[in-house]
Structures are given as structure tokens and as C-alpha cells.
């Protein structure tokens, strides 16, 4: 006990530059005026009361709750007839969950709450949840007490699970106008009525840009709610909220982490497919069943390599409507290790490769605006992800040049996703397999033209470990899904008198992803992102065999999502590849690159 005043006593307690600990109680019929000033710190260890409580440039700290933190009995209250704070701090403990979760509280009984006090909230392991009503009461006024606007504020919004909590004055239905609540949802206000002849204000969705960190502005205390509030969804959906929010509807308060952390999985899957490539992307056009037969059999050493550069402009289907923009750069090198024939007229090639890729992208997405009245599109963070891949391939060539190509690849990922307030390490691994086939058809279209229909089926699994971003554990999760490709490739072969061979070509592919939906866990809250999409790709390139031992290749292409699919992306890419052979091994290794998400 720090101080106990009993009737009919009148006590004035003045503490400057002091460190205090204990409870202060005021008996019925007594008066107890408590003033803290000049940096004093009072640690409240039990329920306390005072006639007046003044905190000037001082801090009131509620001691940690005892017992079960999910029960109100372990938390404490301060009851004051009037309260005034000037540059004051009040540290409270709150179980950040749904409506009515337990918390320390300041109770103002019959008087006023004035001044400016910053509430610092310590989460007592609350998992986070979407509040559907008034939320969590932290300041209560009783017996006609009133509270001034701006008397309490947060230094920044609070995150628990996938939800952010803000401080609101009054209930969502307009009752208890002098009480203060923590809520993880906001009520969409009614539309503004624009008088005739005036310019209509801009909409709630703003173009991408940098905003101040969440919660640093005046809390949304003066919003007049509608008479009837419609409950919000209990969990996050794959679809983003409507561009025009429904008046009176509850919507979750979201921060930059939803968009930024949510794109880790799709970017990793895109990098896995990029490193995998296709047969022509690894060894080009000149290695066919005919010139494989001209090589010596057994162990060989024909090397090839690729340099990959891709511009990323991806959009994903998720609640935060994330978008990524940036570059994917990569290097790949491989070696044909064995060539032989297992059946008459057929040839086989086996080899290994290694690859490194880096994706450095900015992320934009929806966040709740500072007034907690709408969502706005803004820059939410960045993702920098490295991929280290190793793979093995086996290619079978049949009579007439048809082929089957099988590849297995493993990839290790590391990097980090950063927002304005947090950094999440991203560590994971992936496995991908591919089976591809093609059948060249000679056509009389000049310059030894062939048309090659192709099909490819890819299975991929990507698994990221849960890591803490300094607030709570985040798990980007595991994805498993298929990617399919059907396409056609037209190629001309031009043989020059100096021995050089030029092979220009064009190709078109239709890509489809299935079942790779990504779900990021924020504590126990699941935030899904859809990865099913259909894309169309067009590309053109040229292979130049400049000597017996060297071929070069360059390609440019463009890929975009078809309307009505779950994802949308636009990708422009460029690739330069080369092959070097040794001895009497006759082959040319070239590559091209298309991109996938």
C-alpha cells in the first residue's frame, strides 16, 4: 500500500521526480488529491482511487496482471473523481482479443478527463481478433463524468495477429460518448453529400505513395457512426474489399504487413519456375537427335549458361490487394554429363545445373487510413528474396526429333520482407519437377522452317519457416500446386557461307496455375492469397552459332494475365545465354526465358 486515506481526512499527495510503487486508496467521506509531476513514475500494484489525479510530465504504470491473463480479475483499475494529464504517459496491460477482452482501466467518476495522455498498451499475449461491437474498454466515465476530445491517444496502432487496434472515443453505435475503446475494426461512414456546383472530393482509394506509419495521427475519435452497424467478416477473404465501402459496415483495420508478407510465397514460386525453365531455355535449338548421334557416347563435358533479367509488375488476389514491382535477375550454368542410346534410333542426355536468382520488389497494398474511415492504396514495404537452385535433367530424343524432357530441382530461399515498422526474415526451401514434350513439324515456309507444338506440366512445393518480425510469429506457409503450359514455337534455320548458323524464332504459350494458393499465418489468423491464374505469353529471339564451340542467344518477351482470372500480371523480360563446348563434342547450348508466378 502506497497511501490510504480514511474519513474524514483530507490528503494532498504531491510527488515530483519520484519513483513510487503500490496502491492508493481513498475511503468514503475522505478527500485525496494526488499530483505527479516532473518525471515521477507511479507503479500501480492494486486497485486504486483518488478524488483528483493529476499527471504532469509523469508516468503511471499498471503492474502486470496476476493469474490468468484472459480473466478480468487479474487486471487493475484507477478510479478518480477527475483526471488531468499534461504530456503524461499511462502504461496499461490489455489482452488484445475480441470485444470485452480484459484490460487495466482508468475510471472517471462524476468529474472530467482533460489534457493529453498517451496510452501505451502492453499486449498480454492476446492473439488478436476482429471486434464486432464496442471493443475493449480502457477509459470509463460514470455518474455523469465527461471526457475531452483528444484527452487520450496512442503512440501508434497496435498489432495482434493480422489485426491492428486503434483507440476510439465512444461506442460504434453512438453510446458512451465519453468512454474510450480499443477496436480492430472501423465503421464505414455514410457517403459525403456534395452540394450542387461544388467539386466532388476524391475517392477513398489513393495512388501508391508513402504514408506516415499507422497510428501516428489523431485517433479517429470524432467519427459519428450510423445508427445501425452491420457486422464484419470473422476472417479475411481472398477478395479485396469493394472500392466503395458499404456505409455502416464493419471492416478490419489492416496495416502494411498483410500485403508485404503475403507476396513472399508467390514471388518464391515465380523464382522457382524461372530457374527451372524449359528444354530450349537450357540447351537451345541445335542439340537434336541427329547431332546428339554425332557426338561421342559416355561421359562428356558440354557447358551452357544463361543471364536472366525480368521486369516484374504483378497483381494478386487477396484482401490487401497486393501489387509488386521490381526486377528478377538470375544466373544459371549447367553441364551435360552423359550421352548415350538406350534404344536404336533414340538418344539420351543427362546433366546437372546450378542457378542463382534475386527478386527485389516494392509492394503496394491496401491499409486503413489514419482516420480509420476507409482503405487507401499505398507503398507497404519491400521484399528482397534470394534463390539458390540445383537441378538434374534427363532428355530423351526420338526419331524425327520429338523429345521428352524431365527435370528435378531443389531451391533454398533466404531474404527479408520489410515494412515501415518491422522486418520479417524469409527462409524456406522448394522442390519442383517438370515433364515437357515437343514434336517438330517441318513446313514449307522457307529457310528450313519447323513448327513445334509443346506441352509442359510442372509440380512445385514451396515451404517457408515461421519467423518473428519483432511483434509476433509470421508463417508464410506451404504451397503445393501445378503449372501447365501449352504452346507452339516456329523456327527458321539460316546457314551462312562462313559456317555461322542463325535461328530466329517466335513462340506463343498459354500458362495456367492450379492449387498454389498461399495462406500466411499472422499468429493464428490466416490471410489467404489466390494463385490460380491464366496467362498468355508472346516471345521472339534468335540463336547464333558463331563457332564449333560457341553459341549465343538473346530473347525478349511479354506475358500478361487474361481477364477474369484470379491473378493479374504483366511481365517483360530479356535473356542472354551462351554455350561453350570442349574437344570433339558437337553441341550448342542456348536459352530463352519466360516467367511465371
UniProtKB/TrEMBL annotation:
<dbReference type="GO" id="GO:0019867">
    <property type="term" value="C:outer membrane"/>
</dbReference>
<dbReference type="InterPro" id="IPR011050">
    <property type="entry name" value="Pectin_lyase_fold/virulence"/>
</dbReference>
<dbReference type="InterPro" id="IPR012332">
    <property type="entry name" value="Autotransporter_pectin_lyase_C"/>
</dbReference>
<dbReference type="Pfam" id="PF18883">
    <property type="entry name" value="AC_1"/>
</dbReference>
<dbReference type="InterPro" id="IPR005546">
    <property type="entry name" value="Autotransporte_beta"/>
</dbReference>
<dbReference type="InterPro" id="IPR036709">
    <property type="entry name" value="Autotransporte_beta_dom_sf"/>
</dbReference>
<feature type="domain" description="Autotransporter">
    <location>
        <begin position="296"/>
        <end position="580"/>
    </location>
</feature>
<feature type="compositionally biased region" description="Low complexity">
    <location>
        <begin position="195"/>
        <end position="226"/>
    </location>
</feature>
<protein>
    <recommendedName>
        <fullName>Autotransporter domain-containing protein</fullName>
    </recommendedName>
</protein>
<feature type="region of interest" description="Disordered">
    <location>
        <begin position="193"/>
        <end position="239"/>
    </location>
</feature>
<dbReference type="InterPro" id="IPR003991">
    <property type="entry name" value="Pertactin_virulence_factor"/>
</dbReference>
<dbReference type="InterPro" id="IPR006315">
    <property type="entry name" value="OM_autotransptr_brl_dom"/>
</dbReference>
<dbReference type="Pfam" id="PF03797">
    <property type="entry name" value="Autotransporter"/>
</dbReference>
<dbReference type="InterPro" id="IPR051551">
    <property type="entry name" value="Autotransporter_adhesion"/>
</dbReference>
<dbReference type="InterPro" id="IPR043990">
    <property type="entry name" value="AC_1"/>
</dbReference>
Amino acid at each position: 500500500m502506497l497511501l490510504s486515506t480514511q474519513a474524514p481526512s483530507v490528503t494532498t499527495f504531491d510527488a515530483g521526480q519520484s519513483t513510487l510503487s503500490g496502491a492508493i486508496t481513498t475511503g468514503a467521506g475522505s478527500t485525496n488529491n494526488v499530483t505527479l509531476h516532473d518525471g515521477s513514475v507511479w507503479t500501480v500494484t492494486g486497485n486504486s482511487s483518488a478524488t483528483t489525479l493529476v499527471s504532469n510530465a509523469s508516468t503511471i504504470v499498471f503492474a502486470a496482471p496476476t493469474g490468468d491473463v484472459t480473466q478480468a480479475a487479474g487486471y487493475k483499475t484507477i478510479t478518480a473523481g477527475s483526471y488531468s494529464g499534461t504530456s503524461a504517459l499511462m502504461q496499461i496491460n490489455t489482452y488484445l482479443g475480441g470485444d470485452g477482452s480484459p484490460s487495466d482501466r482508468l475510471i472517471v467518476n462524476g468529474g472530467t478527463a482533460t489534457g493529453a495522455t498517451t496510452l501505451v498498451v502492453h499486449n498480454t499475449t492476446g492473439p488478436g481478433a476482429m471486434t464486432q461491437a464496442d471493443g475493449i474498454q480502457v477509459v470509463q466515465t460514470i455518474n455523469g463524468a465527461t471526457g475531452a476530445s483528444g484527452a487520450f491517444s496512442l503512440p501508434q496502432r497496435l498489432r495482434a495477429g493480422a489485426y491492428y487496434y486503434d483507440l476510439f472515443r465512444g461506442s460504434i453505435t453512438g453510446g458512451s460518448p465519453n468512454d474510450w475503446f480499443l477496436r480492430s475494426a472501423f465503421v464505414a461512414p455514410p457517403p459525403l453529400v456534395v452540394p450542387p456546383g461544388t467539386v466532388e472530393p476524391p475517392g477513398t482509394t489513393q495512388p501508391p505513395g508513402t504514408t506516415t506509419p499507422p497510428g501516428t495521427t489523431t485517433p479517429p475519435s470524432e467519427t459519428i457512426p450510423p445508427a445501425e452497424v452491420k457486422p464484419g467478416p470473422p476472417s479475411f477473404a481472398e477478395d479485396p474489399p469493394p472500392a466503395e465501402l458499404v456505409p455502416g459496415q464493419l471492416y478490419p483495420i489492416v496495416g502494411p504487413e498483410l500485403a508485404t508478407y503475403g507476396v513472399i510465397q508467390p514471388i518464391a514460386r515465380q523464382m522457382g519456375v524461372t530457374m527451372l525453365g524449359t528444354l530450349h531455355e537450357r540447351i537451345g535449338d541445335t542439340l537434336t537427335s541427329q547431332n546428339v548421334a554425332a557426338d561421342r557416347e559416355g561421359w562428356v563435358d558440354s557447358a551452357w549458361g544463361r543471364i536472366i533479367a525480368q521486369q516484374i509488375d504483378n497483381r494478386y488476389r487477396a484482401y490487401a490487394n497486393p501489387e509488386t514491382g521490381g526486377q528478377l535477375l538470375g544466373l544459371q550454368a549447367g553441364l551435360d554429363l552423359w550421352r548415350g542410346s538406350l534404344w536404336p534410333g533414340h538418344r539420351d542426355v543427362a546433366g546437372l545445373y546450378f542457378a542463382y536468382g534475386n527478386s527485389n520488389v516494392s509492394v503496394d497494398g491496401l491499409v486503413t487510413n489514419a482516420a480509420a474511415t476507409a482503405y487507401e492504396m499505398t507503398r507497404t514495404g519491400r521484399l528482397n528474396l534470394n534463390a539458390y537452385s540445383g537441378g538434374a535433367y534427363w532428355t530423351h530424343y526420338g526419331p524425327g526429333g520429338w523429345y521428352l524432357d524431365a527435370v528435378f530441382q531443389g531451391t533454398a530461399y533466404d531474404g527479408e520482407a520489410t515494412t515501415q515498422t518491422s522486418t520479417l526474415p524469409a527462409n524456406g526451401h522448394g522442390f519442383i519437377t517438370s515433364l515437357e514434350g515437343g514434336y517438330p513439324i517441318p513446313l514449307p515456309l522457307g529457310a528450313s522452317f519447323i513448327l513445334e507444338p509443346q506441352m509442359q506440366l510442372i509440380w512445385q512445393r514451396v515451404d517457408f519457416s515461421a519467423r518473428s518480425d519483432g511483434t509476433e510469429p509470421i508463417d508464410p506457409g506451404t504451397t503445393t500446386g501445378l503449372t501447365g503450359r501449352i504452346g507452339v514455337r516456329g523456327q527458321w534455320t539460316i546457314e551462312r557461307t562462313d559456317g555461322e548458323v542463325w535461328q530466329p524464332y517466335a513462340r506463343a504459350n498459354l500458362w495456367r496455375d492450379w492449387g498454389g494458393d498461399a495462406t500466411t499465418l499472422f499468429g493464428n489468423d490466416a490471410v489467404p492469397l489466390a494463385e490460380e491464374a491464366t496467362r498468355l505469353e508472346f516471345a521472339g529471339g534468335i540463336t547464333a552459332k558463331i563457332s564449333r564451340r560457341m553459341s549465343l542467344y538473346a530473347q525478349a518477351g511479354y506475358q500478361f494475365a487474361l481477364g477474369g482470372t484470379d491473378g493479374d500480371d504483366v511481365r517483360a523480360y530479356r535473356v542472354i545465354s551462351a554455350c561453350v563446348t570442349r574437344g570433339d563434342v558437337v553441341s550448342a547450348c542456348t536459352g530463352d526465358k519466360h516467367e511465371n508466378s
